[in-house]
Amino acid sequence: SETLLEINDLAVSFSTQGGEVQAVRGVSFAVAPGETVAIVGESGCGKSVTAQSIMRLVPEPPGRIKHGSIHLNGKDLAALSDKQMRSVRGKQIGMIFQDPMTSLNPTLTVGDQLTEGILTHENISKSEAEKKAVELLNLVGIANPQERLKLYPHQFSGGMRQRIMIAMALMCKPSLLIADEPTTALDVTIQAQIIDLFKEIQEKTGVAIIIITHDLGVVAQIADRINVMYAGEIVESGTVKEIFYKPQHPYTRGLLTSVPRLDGDRSQPLIPIAGTPPDLFSPPEGCAFTSRCKYAMEVCRAYDPAVTHLSDRHFTKCWLQDERAEKPF
Ligand code: SF4
Ligand code: MG
After folding, report:
1. Which of 11, 19, 97, 277 is at 20 to 30 A from 59, Cα to Cα?
2. In sequence order, what are the residues at sequence separation of 6 or more whose Cβ sits closer than 8 angstroms to the Cβ of residue 121?
3. What ipTM does the predicted assembly reach?
């Protein structure tokens, strides 16, 4: 099948006064055109750093890509000049962050920001750019675009501002949209509307989406596949059905019990996962989840679990699924 984005064995570290933090430790996954892939995990698990690596936005130093490769449409992004990479960021990859105010200019009207952005990428007249700005606001479901374009960012609600950010990210018809915690700052009703908007946009434009979140519940409605990250690694990956109905890794199961149920049944209490992730200055020898895992065995402490495939697309990195774990080492 076709591949839009391919990440292979990516490792990223940050040097700090306390030593080197191994934020991403050997992450591999691919995204097909038009697909939605979610990256889910607690804060500090390496999900945002993975996204920044795709955009080549990891600050170096203190950050460093230790090894691995990222290909977009077959092109090695590491081989591009800064100028070429800026054009990839504008035209091929759009990015949406948690807080739209950090990316919107408070001193310019939304219309000026959109038309300016369009004009830096396209050689068209100002009035054509304004027409495109109106089309973009229509696409993201903002009514009366002509009037709204005259307003400043602070005159919009949080949900509306996120819609404007999405319009900005779609400006150059990217083939990939990366959304890092796009709904975290919003209340639950607005969250659902933004997720619906992503679905709608994907149907209309065919854009592929990587959505990053700490909340599995957010991605149930939209993702094709879910990568669960823990301590810098993907510990389980599968389709939404596989992750929600056949979770294998104890961490994934833990995440699921801390998420409201898909059918809205609130009778079961939500149980957060006890404990904290390991220190990534010196990741443990064995499985990084050992200290929080109620199934931890001797072998888990001693040896890093290998990847076990449960189906075509479903894999987990846990000794419980590895038949060798039965035998003493
Ligand atoms: Fe738990 Fe062992 Fe699996 Fe790690 S490898 S998640 S400690 S059972
Ligand atoms: Mg983050």
Report:
1. 277
2. 90, 91, 171, 172
3. 0.95
